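Progress report, Aim 2. The chain analyzed during this reporting quarter is listed below.
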Amino acid sequence: MSKLGQVGHRLYTGEVSYDFVGRKRAWYTVSAAIILISIAALVTRGLNFGIEFKGGAEFRLPAVSCSVQDARHAVEPLTGTEPIVQKVGGNAVRVQTEVLQPGAADGIANALAKACGVQANQVDRNVIGATWGGEVSRKAVTALIVFLVLVSIFIALFFETKMAIAAVVALLHDLVITTGLYSLVGFEVTPATVIGMLTILGYSLYDTIVVFDSLRENTRHLDRTYAHTYSEAANLSINQTLVRSINTSVIVLMPVGAILFVGAYALGAGVLKDLSLVLFIGITASTFSSIFFATPLVAQLKEREPAMKAVAKKVQSNRAKAARAESPVLVAAEGEPGGTTTAVLERQPKPVAAKGYRPPPRRADGSRPSRKRRR
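Predicted structure tokens for the chain:
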């Protein structure tokens, strides 16, 4: 068995345990700090929405020799605003403008073709109205709300209500962090970004459900065995699934990171970059929330229930009795001068009667006859 497998086995059996639930205040503080940074970024910087959401026009030129500045100077006089010009896929050029007046797209295409030395029919154009972009935004928000409602109902029916609450809070936690960091980086929000958002929400749910399933098994007979409190069982569940969660996340992040690097530095702006960035941030946040946020939150909610308070009280009582039974007792030491005694700590074993032994009957004076064997 490999060293990692040995660690996983020791975590699963409880031989080694890290107190994740007991340090929940520290994890909550870390999450709160990241969320505050994300919210501040969203308020101050906002999101860089693509033309699919705010409307506008996009022009793409094949591999050309003109620079970004040449394309910008050719388009800016025709739009009145500074366009967004980027190099994509090597020498190809992408130009984005705001919503154009009818017929203006042809003039911009001709200007770009002249500046970059290509034919006008080689310039691909995509014009999106502001109304259509607003409709896409509303559908994206609607899809997110429907997803959260269905997830809540499923977890509440399959597990329990408090687990559903914790799972949804963890999903919102991942969503805010991912959106905020996306705002800090300044990448453009495209339909690929929305697809990535829904994907990481599904991944976050999967990672959380794995821990919740283990937690359900560990707490199935908690009110009968009184071996652990709910928080201790929750901590055991995190430790049992820790190696699996880390391995899964690392395996997923490796190709996503490779795509992000290729999309951002080799191919320039595009769908790969938008999708891979949101996946990379979201998967990392999901792994953190499933281990350090969702399960400790469930334990905190459950420990407030009267039944779980009674279990915790019974567990502590049983442990106190066991400690008293194993503690040393005071025994008087004989032979001290002056008839005094000195207390000595010894462990007194319980007397064990010999099998089949019965004491002889007492005489009239109260003494017992000797049981010595006659030779």
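The first strand starts at residue 48 and ends at 49. The chain has two domains: 3-46+132-314, 56-128. These observations will guide the mutagenesis work planned for the next reporting period.
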